[in-house]
Design brief:
Order of helices and strands: HHHHHHHEEEEEEEEEEEEEE
Shape: globular
CATH topology of the largest domain: serine acetyltransferase, domain 1
Strand order of the largest sheet: 1-4-7-10-13
Number of strands: 14
Helix content: 40-55%
Structural class: alpha/beta
Strand content: 5-15%
Radius of gyration: 23 Å
Number of domains: 2
Oligomer: single chain
CATH class of the largest domain: Mainly Alpha
Length: 306
């Protein structure tokens, strides 16, 4: 077999394996419905376009003030049209995956989800304004709110989360996770779109932060790098598979500060409002409001050089 024949044979094998892989058990293979692997790039572009719409001129191209309304109108129409197509395909894929033959309304569900996002944009922007102010007021190194918007990774990650959360709440499969994982790859901040996060949210530095799907976080919460709000364990069904859709991650009240490296786990764990959680603390139990939780001061060994 020469090189040309070998390549052709290999491509045929790869194509078959790709179809089998993504069918799982009935998806985008021979039925040609649902998302394709290349949709990931499209969703990434939609995500960045949405950020450019929310922060025009700070992210994306520079927009003259007199063209702002025209730009937003054109950009929104283009992005939402593309998003509608991807959301429809995502619903189709999930229907195929779950062998759903009841609804037959993927296009209508996609239209409703995109409308829901459009209607939510003003409130998303209003909430992000409070997040930006929280970052500016919470970080003495910040010289302006513009610096926060243009350079702080947490603002990008939180903005993407707030967009993805609306789609998640509308029942859109796949796409919200692709959006937040795109932000994760760019910022090191991993926020599941299912988490519920109040306004005035600030993640200082950000790298290594993990916020799980069933977290509920109140208003004016500040967390530092390396914080994990995760699951303590996974309940399993009779076949040993993890049970999905149950409360697995902690609740955090209003006005809480969680310092670097803290790990808080479990769906029954609640951090009461106005509490401080110190660095590197490990918590699997609830904490009442107005608490301070710290590890004991370690005793370092200090030796003089000879």
């Amino acid at each position: 077999m020469n090189m040309k024949e070998l390549i052709k044979h290999t491509v045929q094998q790869i194509t078959k394996e790709i179809e089998n892989c993504f069918q799982c058990p009935a998806g985008i293979g021979k039925r040609r419905k649902g998302l394709t692997p290349s949709a990931r790039q499209t969703i990434h572009q939609i995500t960045d376009d949405m950020i450019a719409i929310i922060f025009p001129g700070c992210h994306g191209p520079e927009i003259p003030p007199e063209r702002l309304e025209e730009y937003l109108n054109e950009k929104l129409y283009s992005v939402m049209s593309t998003l509608h197509e991807q959301v429809r395909r995502a619903f189709e894929y999930q229907c195929n995956f779950e062998r759903c033959d009841k609804c037959n309304d993927c296009d209508k569900r996609a239209e409703n989800a995109v409308k829901q996002l459009l209607e939510s944009l003003p409130s998303i922007i209003k909430t992000l304004r409070q997040d930006i102010i929280a970052a500016y007021e919470g970080d003495p190194a910040a010289r302006s709110t513009m610096e926060v918007v243009m350079s702080y990774p947490c603002i990008y990650a939180i903005a993407v989360y707030r967009i993805a959360h609306v789609l998640y709440e509308a029942g859109v499969p796949l796409i919200p996770r692709v959006m937040t994982e795109h932000a994760h790859s760019k910022t090191g901040i991993d926020i599941h779109p299912g988490a519920k996060i109040g306004s005035g949210f600030f993640i200082d530095h950000g790298t290594g932060v993990v916020i799980g799907e069933t977290c509920v976080i109140g208003n004016n919460v500040k967390i530092y790098q390396g914080v994990t709000l995760g699951a303590l364990s996974f309940e399993k069904d009779a076949n040993g598979n993890p049970i999905k859709g149950i409360k697995r991650h902690p609740n955090v009240g209003d006005n809480v500060v969680i310092y670097a490296g803290a790990t808080i786990l479990g769906g029954d764990t609640t951090i009461g409002s106005n509490s401080e959680i110190g660095g590197n603390v490990w918590l699997i139990h609830s904490v009442p409001p107005n608490s301070k939780v710290y590890n004991r001061q370690p005793r370092p060994l200090i030796k003089q050089k000879k």
